[in-house]
Amino acid sequence: MNSQLALKTDKLTKTYITGKIEVTALKDADLSVKKGGFIGITGESGSGKSTLMNLLGGLDTPTSGTIEAEGKIISRMNKEELALYRRYSVGMIFQSFNLIPSFTAQENVSLPLLFAGVPKAERKARAAEALENVGLSHRQRHRPSELSGGEQQRVAIARALVNQPKILLADEPTGNLDSKISHDIAELLGNLNQSRGLTVVMVSHEEPLLKEFAQGIIRLRDGMITAREMI
What's the pTM value of the predicted model, to 2 decimals? Predict the structure, then answer.
């Protein structure tokens, strides 16, 4: 893979089989994302956006084709290797915040560090730093029910970044938020991209957000990439 690329796919295809029914959710998708780039992905519901993100994030495996991330061919990894890839190389955020209700913001953010075997004092310090980076240093001890939707999504972003991945995949991160908070979240991702050189791939139905913060937009339809637009 080109050393300037963070992500590259070649003829990436995913087919699901249920009984006698075969559905191709993604077909022959060729994608290249430069290191430190910000790419938006858009398309109608059922166009294959989430399938593509799950494959890039190592949550699913392709039927055929290859995926390379930071020079590693993740489409050939076994379960243990994929688990390490998800833990250290890529961060993911979703439309649902997936926070543990009984945990504080700091405890939610530090959870990936616990799984990584990081000592308690370091977990606390790194979680605090991650929350500060998303503007929530004053909300560390609050639980999800005490936070707004935008704040909960910021906690989810901090959690995705606490292991310092080089790639952030955001699957409809503003889908449950109003227009102002959606803009704030997209702006935060844009700032992280610019200030930290973080590679960002963001799925959204909101093209104005993508056009404001992304450097390019990829359009999907019926599981196929139909258009590419540089901004």
Answer: 0.94
Does a structural domain hold residue 78?
no
- Cα separation of 160 and 86, whole Å? 10
Residue 128 structure tokens: 């605090």
Give the chain's mean pLDDT.
94
Which tokens is 97 given?
């915040």
Amino acid at 154: R
- Which structural domain, as residue segments, surrounds residue 120? 95-164
Q: In what order do the strands lie in the sheet with 199-203?
A: 90-94, 167-171, 199-203, 38-43, 216-221, 224-230
- Domain assignment present for 147: yes
17: tokens are 């089989």
- pLDDT tens-digit profile of 103-150? 999 999 999 999 889 999 999 999 999 999 999 999 999 999 999 999
Structural domain contains residue 1 = no
Number of domains in the chain: 1
In a domain, 54, yes or no: no
